[in-house]
Amino acid sequence: MSFPVLKIGDLTATTPIVQGGMGVGISLSRLASAVANEGGIGVIAGAMVGMREADVVSNPIEANVRALRREIEKAKSMTSGIIGVNIMVALTTFADLVRASVEAGADVIFSGAGLPMDLPKLYQDTCEATKKEFRTKLVPIVSSGRAATLIAKKWMAKTGLLPDAFVLEGPKAGGHLGFARENLTDANFALENLVPGVVDAAKALEDKAGRAIPVIAGGGVFSGADIAKMIGLGASGVQMATRFVATHECDADIRFKEAYVNASEDDITVIQSPVGMPGRALNGKFIEASREGKRKPFKCVFHCIKTCDPETTPYCISSALISAMKGYLDKGFVFCGSNVGRVKEIVSVHDLVDSLHKEYDDAMNSSQAQA
Predict the structure, then answer these.
(1) Does a structural domain hold residue 342?
(2) Closest CA to 171 of 199, 200, 144
(3) pLDDT (mean) for 150-166
(4) In this structure, what DSSP letter does residue 160 have?
(5) pTM of the model as a whole
(6) Residues 249 and 270 grouped into a single domain
(7) Is 49 a domain residue?
(8) Residue 127: is its pLDDT beyond 90?
(9) What 3-state DSSP class applies to 314?
(10) What is the per-residue pLDDT for 296?
């Protein structure tokens, strides 16, 4: 049984999987293009994408914009599939990265870690300034149907545009989470209980939009059976991130990937990130030292997060994530999803997608047999 296709406007993903954007440097052109080549939507993370640029300290905005353009162009040279970009609202470079993504030909911009109210206006301004009509799809990342409706209302009032799709991230996702800490284990906020509300909110907008507005469900989606479950609830596709870390094509150091393979459920913890949101990560010496009050004073050189106050923040999150991505796990920490303990080996993106397809088939055949 074939996967259903995921359509976002005139884009068609034959594999209904969006590879979640993972900063800092975890999902760049290599991983994104590999996922796109398997029919999914590959996503480059914009957060500190310019970390390897020689002038990232002296000129962080231009360094990150330059690097993002290069990663998009590189990914598109390696695939004819769909390439997206994930740009956090909390980034100080948000507007610059949005403009660069549109101009570089990104197929989709996914945006969360805050409400992306300015995203459509930035898109329109870029089209006007360049005298070009780009076709980049704009997809907010939300945590509820209420948030989806609010964003759509604001976008429509300001620009006349509506979202091309919504990504719903549930509380089992990795990295920064759009939920209060006390809601992370509340069954009322489980992904399967949130999907119908966002699907209903999206459908209520479709007449105004004159097109379908698909919902992509993520956060704890691990298997092909999970994909079948989300589609059965009304989602048009899923977002998966944790599974793609343990692939040969993932842009992180092998030691980062091995941390996933070696992790157990007991290793997972929730931190309070300098971004101002809870974040799910693997526990380790760096996090334990932070909790013990061992502050790592730093001079802010990246100026990457709007909400970060270097005077009170216990560590530089960019430096910590860069260190981890490079494999220096004692100098940083590893973000992960709630199912990281189920990851047992590093495989190719092709083999991962193939196994997910087979699991999806088994789940669908089983449900039909029981009907």
Answers:
(1) no
(2) 144
(3) 97
(4) S
(5) 0.94
(6) no
(7) yes
(8) yes
(9) coil
(10) 64
